[in-house]
Amino acid sequence: MTQAILEVQGLDSRYGRVPALTDISLEVRPGELVAIVGANGAGKTTLMRSISGVQPATVRTLRFDGQDIARATARKRVQLGIAQVPEGRQLFPALSVEDNLLLGTFARGSRQRLEQICGMFPILVQKRHDPAGTLSGGQQQMLALGRALMTEPRLLLLDEPSMGLAPRLVAEVFQHVAALKAAGTTIILADQNARAALAIADRGYVMETGRIIFGGPANALLHDEKVRQAYMGM
Ligand code: ATP
């Protein structure tokens, strides 16, 4: 079996004295799209932020491409190739689309990459000089995705890309994510929309109150009665 690009064992995180994540273990292999699903408050965002290093966590093993990153700063993790698209996009609304993209190269990446990203998201070319805040929700999600891709990541962490989007736009954003996977990008996709996330994933993990309660091939989870009832409302 191919060696994992990301290996997490025994990860815990808390907010003050309140535990948010307990004994999380997961792995992601190169080229995989792994979905993390679970209800609101299950701990998906905290997990993504713990992997990117912006959320303090204690962990028994945290390896990226064989390297121990447990004590690496968030910036160092970006330099190694981990990029996060945060929940709620976190753009700079007054800055232009182009400047938001260029900010993505702060720790890693290059200006040349801008044209490639614009090739992937034609809407960003049209709106290149407009303030990011004037874009629709779906367009802002594409911009947030484009900004993370500016770093040419080896692992992309996508947190709740469907948040606040109409179903048609969710489908469009997820098509982009599926295309990135097809082009070889390794992705962790955390989303409350379990059906849409599992539909494009290779494998999935289900989270409940800060723990991973089970995991398996995405297709099996998609058809699992318990997962369907708890997370897909059917
Ligand atoms: P959502 O989809 O709403 O983002 P989630 O699965 O991503 O949910 P988290 O946001 O990681 O879940 O939250 C996990 C737990 O940690 C929840 O009980 C939440 O209330 C708590 N929590 C999250 N952020 C904070 C914070 N800044 N301070 C205190 N508790 C927090």
Blueprint of the fold:
Elements: E1 6-15, E2 18-28, E3 33-37, H1 44-52, E4 58-64, E5 67-68, H2 74-80, E6 82-85, H3 97-103, H4 113-120, H5 122-126, H6 137-149, E7 155-159, H7 167-182, E8 187-190, H8 194-200, E9 203-208, E10 211-217, H9 218-222, H10 225-231
Parallel strand pairs: 3-8, 3-9, 6-7, 7-8
Antiparallel strand pairs: 1-2, 1-4, 4-5, 9-10
Helix pairs in contact: 3-6
Bound molecules: adenosine-5'-triphosphate (ATP).
Adenosine-5'-triphosphate (ATP) binds at residues 15, 20, 38, 40-46, 87, 160, 192.
Bound molecules: adenosine-5'-triphosphate
Overall form: globular
CATH names the topology as: Rossmann fold
Compute the CA-based radius of gyration: 17 Å
CATH superfamily: P-loop containing nucleotide triphosphate hydrolases
Spatial order of the strands forming the largest sheet: 6-7-8-3-9-10
| Share of helical residues | 25-40%
What is the total tally of β strands?
10
CATH architecture: 3-Layer(aba) Sandwich
What is the ordering of alpha helices and beta strands?
EEEHEEHEHHHHEHEHEEHH
Count of all domains: 1
End-to-end distance = 35 Å
Low-confidence stretches: none
Mean pLDDT value: 90
Derived from helix and strand composition plus strand pairing, the structural class reads alpha/beta
Content of β-strand? 25-35%
Q: In a nutshell, what does this entry contain?
A:
The protein is of the alpha/beta class.
Question: What are the salient characteristics of this protein?
Answer:
single chain, 234 residues, alpha/beta, Rossmann fold, six-stranded mixed β-sheet, four-stranded antiparallel β-sheet, 26% strand, globular, binds adenosine-5'-triphosphate
